Amino acid sequence: MNLTRLNAVLLGLGLGISAVAVAAPTLVQDVRVFDGSDVHARRSVLIDGGLIVDADFHGPAPRGARLVSGAGRTLLPGLIDSHVHAYRHFDLPLLFGVTTQVDMFTGVQAMQEITRAMAANNNRHQADLFSAGTLVTAPGGHGTQFGMPIPTLARAADAQAFVDARIAEGSHFIKIVLEDGSHAHRVNSLDLATVKAAIDAAHKRGKLAVVHISTLANARAALVAGADGLVHLFNGEHISDQETADFARLARAKGAFVIPTFSVLESAAGVPVRPLAAGSPLAGLLDKEQQVPLQTRYGKKLAPERLRVPAAVTAALHKEGVPVLAGTDAGNPGTQYGISMHRELAALVEAGLTPRAALASATSVPAAAFRLGKRGRIANGYKADLLLVKGDPLADISATQQVEEIWKDGESARALRDQQRLRVAQEAAPSPANRVRLPADGRISLFSAAKLGSPVGTGWGPSHDGMMGGSSTVELALLPDTVEGQPAVSVSATVAPGFPYPWAGVAFLPGAKPMQPADLSAAKLIRFKVRGDGKRYQLSMMSRGVTIPGQVPFTAGAEWSEISVPFSEFAGIDPAAVTMIGFNAGPKPGGYRFDIADVRLLER
Known about the structure:
globular, Galactose-bd-like_sf, signal, Metallo-dep_Hydrolase, CIA30 family protein, NADH-UbQ_OxRdtase-assoc_prot30
């Protein structure tokens, strides 16, 4: 195909492209192609102007085209992660071959900015985003715990107005929460009448309505109410064959799709993130902050048996012909944007999907389910969002980790990946000069009537969920007596219901400014003296990039006692970037009182 013919094809597709774009098409030659549903052993694919011009190209290469050898490689559509919470690291997914994210809850401004960039064809250096914007949840329900005020829905009668407001903000679809928490921690939930009203309101405006659930009962109820899709499955050790079959048949009868989100279900089951395949080029693409979420987990105890239920249900759904979509729930502990998709694909195969079906679940299937237009396939006129991997992921799904090259809107992401690798390497270089110099005795509590001070950092102060919209309160007071010559502080807390994870206590901020990271890697443990009302408390620590603190419980008995906790017990916390150390009451509502003194950060 010569340039004249190439121009004619593009014009026939109604595509306006620049002279620079026409002058530099890319031809991937003699490559195995998975086109989103079918496999082609050997094809050449021509891309230009941000689009796939010819998915089965024959003839001499266009003059000036960049030629890419496909020998021993497989060309895939760019991956689509069907469940994320995209509030940061917007460029990260692309580095791992995820060219489109379907977001289930993010800030409205971020959603609108990316939507505008996509409309202007100016989003080539990060993944595209289709978002629900603000989710539909009850006052005090799941989704209200993240520190930003959001509108909530209290009555079915208000559902249409609520949904219309989300659509006016730019939501591509509507996400609804049917979640009342666990036995240990209940949260408010929409009732079924309100869920159905919200679904109906979305459908009235031609929008999809998907539902967050965490139990079989709620999953069935959401499907009966008319949900287009379920954005999670649910953990458990046992489900009967009859329950599994009935649920799969119900999903099929309702024409719904399901996103299992194994990545976050594994986190909830305490399962560590699996290592990358040997020699994977994905290694070295995450900086320290970006690695932290992969080192944390929701589940405090290893319980892989809890993954039996979602695996069995996923297999039944697939067998029944229910569309299964690959989604990671990235943005949560145990996940990270982009990289978690490769684990998600492997988990789907382990659950019973063929590699071919798993690849479809991350390409053509979500593109169709979420009505994403011409993406998710390698076909003429589709977006040139492509992933080239070494080997054959249709035989071994781990081959998706052997990334050779990525294209977003026809532009190679090679330079972006090289820049990220360089940045990560520079960060890894030793910089002991940046470490906080601890006092000789390690003591960070310099309490006095004038100030709750410290020789390092910002010092001490009250901490409670009121900073994030909760109602808990705390009062701090210097005690008139000392413990072994050290002034002590009394902490009187009232933990109030109404916030999903309420707390109140006292916090130490080690940075030069509040919540600024501090390098405390010179310390190996924290030691303190405490007494109190005999109740259980939490020693918590946060570091840069962490949304859920690492926590270690302690008891404040009636007499003074000394407690030592190694930093190593705070899973996923980076000692080189600590933002806060807290001593907190909660989440059980009620009154609490404890005294604390002589807090030290020690090298051993």
